[in-house]
Task: structure prediction
Amino acid sequence: MFIGHFGLGMGLKKTAPAISLGTFFIAVQLLDLIWPTFLLLHIEHVIIHPELSGNRILEFKSYPYTHSLIGALCWSLLFGGIYFLVKKNGRNALILGLAVFSHWVLDFFVHFGDLPLLPTDNSTHVGLALWGSPAVEIVIEVILFVAGIVLYLRSVQFKNTLGKIVFGVLIALFVLVQLSSSWGPAPANETALAWSAQFQWLFVLLAYWVDRNTLKTA
Result:
C-alpha cells in the first residue's frame, strides 16, 4: 500500500479545506515516514529477500513502535493532539488523528499477517494478506488514488499555472515510485532501503507547495 495512502490524504482535503495537503500527507503516511529513521537507528528491522518479487521482497521482521495497533493509536493521538494545541480546532484535530490511524487500517488489509497488535516481541500479529492477490490489491490502490485526486480537485481551485504544474509533477512522481517499487530491483540492504524511503518527504514538501497555490472551494 503506497499510492492508496496518499490518495486517501488527497481525498480528506474535502472534509477539512483549512488543513494543508502537506499536513494530510504527513498524517496518512506518518507511520511510514517515521519507520525509515527507526531502521537507521536499528530500533526496528526488515529482512530483504532479493530472490523474491513484488510485495514479498520485504519481510517486516520487527516494527512494534511504528506499525503495532497500539503504536498507531499512540501516534494518532500525538499528531491530533499537537494539531489541537497549535490550532485549537478539535474537529480538524480529530480528522488528522483518524487520518494517521487510517494507515494501520489500510495496511491491515494488505500485509502478510505481520502487523503486531502490541509493541512487544510476543504480540499477536495480524493482516489479511491482500498482497498475496496483487491484481486485487493494485486495483484497490488505484481506486483510492484516483478517487483522492478527483476529490482534491473538487476541493480547491488553482490560483495559477504553477500550482497545476507542481500538482502534475506530484502525481507523476507517485506513479513512477509505485512502478519502481512494484517492478524495480530490491534494495541492496536495510540501510539503503531506509535512506530511499526518506524520499517520501519530497511528496510532503510538494504538497505544501501545491496548497500554497490553490484557493479552497469546499
